[in-house]
User: What shape does this take?
Amino acid sequence: MICEAAARLVAILPWRWLGAAGRGVGWIAGSLFRVRRAHVEAAIKNAGIDRAPAVAARMYGSLGTALVEFLWVAGRPHRKIDDLVSLSPEARKVWDRPRAAGQGRIVVTAHTGNWDLVACAAAAHLSPSLAIVTKHLHNRLLDRFWQRCRAQRGARLVDGEALYARAAGILRGGGDVAIVIDQAPERASSVLRLPFLGRLASYDLLPAILSARTGAPIVMALGRRAEGRTHVIEIPLVIEPPRRASPAFVREATEKLNRSLDAFVRAHPEQWLWMHRRWKPVAGHVPSAAMVPRLPPRAPAW
Assistant: This one.
């Protein structure tokens, strides 16, 4: 298969060469073929970030490097990657805090840095019980390769039907659940519209609802590319849920996550995936305070 062959070929290269190779891939995609280049530059300008063309060029370089790095890791399935990804000192203090027995964490993340490499490293070395709420790629062959590589590194994948119930069960069992929040939701219910990088974007309330109903804290963990071709995980925000479930908490937590992600992207604009159709409206969505669902009191067994 082409993907496996590419992974084996890239795996021959030393890690330190991957940056140059990735920037070349990014130049081909962003400057030669200009894949969604107009959309990317317009989004950066709408956010009020200066020098949009230069930021866009660096984003494509980062994206190309992330792709090459993922192929390298896929081509070396037995190679440990804990030396490639680390927690910042502040994030380490947060992650290592003692937890009550049976208390899982909702790890909220986004497409920053090399998100797949960070997810694989987290599953292998930071959270052996990590389950990732995932979407599938439209290309089935690519999707099977992508999902298989992540699973080989210990990441449990959660998708399909009864998503909420399955995620809640993992949290109640003491496992961690990772949810990406920077993609437009595919449903109209349980969604809030909030200003993000200069325009209104839709936010899925799933992380906050899970926190309110299970008592699991929300930990925002975002990866960024550091010097020396390694990656650092930052934890800019932790949200502890109240003892009683509250629609107000769901809204406030979602707003806090939005503001924190906005600030991180503005601080590292070249490391976020501006190619997303992040600001597209959700079909059938009716902006209303009533979109935050009523929550029952948390059951004692939770």
Summary: The longest strand covers residues 231-239. The mean pLDDT is 91.
